[in-house]
Amino acid sequence: MAKPKKTPRPKAETPKGFRDYFGAEVTARAEMLQAIAGVYHRYGFDALETSAVETVEALGKFLPDVDRPNAGVFAWQEDGEGEKPGDWLALRYDMTAPLARVYAQHRNDLPNPYRRYAMGPVWRNEKPGPGRFRQFYQCDADTVGSASMGADAEICAMLADTLEEVGIPRGDYIIRVNNRKVLNGVMEVAGVLDPANPDAMEAERGIVLRAIDKLDRLGVDGVRALLGVGRKDDSGDFTDGAGLSDAQSDVIMGFMQAKRDSGAATVARLRELVAGSQTGEAGVDELEEIADLLAAGGYGPDRIEIDPSVVRGLGYYTGPVYEAELTFEIFDEKGRKRQFGSVAGGGRYDDLVRRFTGQEVPATGVSIGVDRLLAALTAKGRMQQSVQGPVVVTVMDRARMADYQAMVAELRQAGIRAEVYLGNPKNFGNQLKYADKRGSPVAIIEGGDEKERGVVQIKDLILGAKIAETATHEEWKDRPSQFEVPRDQMLDKVREILEGQGK
Amino acid sequence: MAKPKKTPRPKAETPKGFRDYFGAEVTARAEMLQAIAGVYHRYGFDALETSAVETVEALGKFLPDVDRPNAGVFAWQEDGEGEKPGDWLALRYDMTAPLARVYAQHRNDLPNPYRRYAMGPVWRNEKPGPGRFRQFYQCDADTVGSASMGADAEICAMLADTLEEVGIPRGDYIIRVNNRKVLNGVMEVAGVLDPANPDAMEAERGIVLRAIDKLDRLGVDGVRALLGVGRKDDSGDFTDGAGLSDAQSDVIMGFMQAKRDSGAATVARLRELVAGSQTGEAGVDELEEIADLLAAGGYGPDRIEIDPSVVRGLGYYTGPVYEAELTFEIFDEKGRKRQFGSVAGGGRYDDLVRRFTGQEVPATGVSIGVDRLLAALTAKGRMQQSVQGPVVVTVMDRARMADYQAMVAELRQAGIRAEVYLGNPKNFGNQLKYADKRGSPVAIIEGGDEKERGVVQIKDLILGAKIAETATHEEWKDRPSQFEVPRDQMLDKVREILEGQGK
Prior knowledge:
Distance between the termini of chain A: 53 Å
Subcellular location (chains A, B): Cytoplasm
Strand order of the largest sheet of chain A: 2-6-7-14-13-12-8-11
CATH superfamily of the largest domain in chain A: Bira Bifunctional Protein, Domain 2
EC number (chains A, B): 6.1.1.21
CATH architecture of the largest domain in chain A: 2-Layer Sandwich
Number of strands of chain A: 19
Largest sheet of chain A: 8 strands, mixed
Keywords (chains A, B): Aminoacyl-tRNA synthetase, ATP-binding, Cytoplasm, Ligase, Nucleotide-binding, Protein biosynthesis
Number of domains of chain A: 2
Protein name (chains A, B): Histidine--tRNA ligase
Shape of chain A: elongated
Oligomer: homodimer
Pfam family, one (chains A, B): HGTP_anticodon
């Protein structure tokens, strides 16, 4: 073993943008993933786990977030062999790119359609910020090989079921559905997309997309300015506009504000807006089909609605787009009330597999941001904040460790979380401080005197803490928090105390 | 979105040494991790999840496997800022190095002792081979900050409980315990370790360690040759020996063969062998203490035994060393019977945290190779090989998709895994082939005729397959595998068939 004697001491730090998760943070996430997997399974999706590492070639450059153009990957080059240079490898940045690779690689063996779910960390090589990490969890479900709107409708329904399963009650979330083809139709009608020359005016359309996405922040006037000549912000910086005429801008603004009280009315309004565009009409048909399927399944607009203002991801997807938003308010880091926002999104992307095979394979899917969903539940106080600590058997006599180990063995066999204090037992106060730090419900004490008399002392630490807090309170004053019981009644008494604490 | 038009198509392949896991492979592992976490939790360990990425500086070069000296990490350099070069980052190669970093970073906030478990993938940048992957799962539990042999004994007991919990019955595994200090004592007595000059003769001790580890393969004579002048193998290659005299070799061989029928007898024999070495006697005391604690907890030599021939990891650990081996026989890839071998190992490593803090912090822990354990259970036929497929509702009339979606919604709400066929419904044969490929237990058919009469057809696909297999068999001949029931009895009939199949 090499001894790093002369090198300076390494810094004990996570790399920038990474963090550690302790105790309940880990178990709460594991439980959430398990709950989500349960719903995905019931919907007929099969598990898939790809490795964290892919070739850069297979991953491609398909980062879905148009607002993060510089998002990159963590990549490195393998050692070469002889003259041959090594492959470039990278950590996956999402679950969709590996799915495309898996489908292309195994398509002859997989069922068709292939329905899979995948959960795990993904990595983004981007500038870390407060609350913004370079490793986070995603939980995806996709149907590859189906052009049916049934596949999209089903994923929206599943998303609603999933949110309720993990503890977001109906009314605290809304799933919004839009369609890329409708937007393209609107672009055609507005004259910024020519079906005969689809690559022209791409820059203008990019500005339009980004402008639509800023409606919440800039308001109608700000977006209008961006659609037209451009906009100077409060700091004096000027953002170029798309150069649209007022009439053109009217069409786009009409699209953004097309939402009506019912899905049917919204669909009707969109149909007016895209009149004359084949693509646009196909998109409205798709939206209508999804709305009908969802209505037949009992998923009304209290859970899933058609909303033309959803544009996030529209630059990436090719048909239906959906997004789940939590609608309750939380307090942000500056103490201001705000809506929690998006926790999941997805849509149809019919050309991702084509990179590998040359064939167009229809696909649709959703990705849940598990860490954001956990943060939401935590903000609402619906998350268990800590794991119950173990019963701590204290060490009064170092030579009798075997007695203490026998006690914890008895407790554990009864399914009770327990441990012997394994630090230096000399200072008894430290043992109780340890029990406190672990959130232990009960401490057990067996000194020489107790051993002789065949008894143990059992301390109810939860009750003890309450008594200490409210020393003068009548309710607690006369209740003992420490009990002496015969050794062979230890297990029963501990069980009784734990049950009492659970009430 | 950039379109990779002119670049050649990427290859749809996992990088060398990585693989994908499908369906039951994923869920079986998730269930195993959950079962292991349950035992670790009951023993008082808290969950910790560190990020996959660490600084190379923090990871250090502490690969524990002495037989893989070239094992490396996957590493890359961050972009620098201005003149300042970026940090080197790497994927973790085990769970112990990140634990050392976490403990050094958070030691003022963590309970002391700190007991944590961690599970997840680790990565090794080494030459992949058959069945040898560069990403695999580990599941560790460690107690940091305790010098007590109670901590070591407990981990051995926990390992036994864990193996039984995941489905390895008593008798099919053995946990072996040894101690680095006893080996050092034997080295002192044999004259290849001088306590006053511990760095001298390191090369000789390395050869001795590697020779001991080869006892199984080379036999007593081969090991003796390696301890002495060296050994020529069957291919004619010569391996240098440690240059020990016969008397010196006798001491080492005595250590390897010191195992007796009972732990007490083994301890007594070891005490003879290390007589005169302070370190060796301390090691024997430790082994004796562990044996006593385990005996008091009811963990006899049918589960855990003292075995001086365990040397794996002795070069890395500083005190007790333990290893779990599965003792049943399996057939290897060449059809030969062999013992399955090691699935977990660990020990005491008192100086890992010192790299960061300068202080020596005692620590001990175990790592379970989850993928190996899964392979063992699979080899024994104790693993579920597939996940039950969904009930498949076939599509007879594309326009009535809403009806079919309502059927699956009804089944799912009753907790039954179900889906509508989402591929092109034109060819009904493809729909049944799909159901077969998914391992579906039941298919549901509702054509126009059925719709009119208010009924559905329900096919028992498991029974259907049995009938097809044994067409002439009397038992099946007269049993129908397809049932017509009123639409409102669909759920009940599906339930009845699923229950019948479960028998």
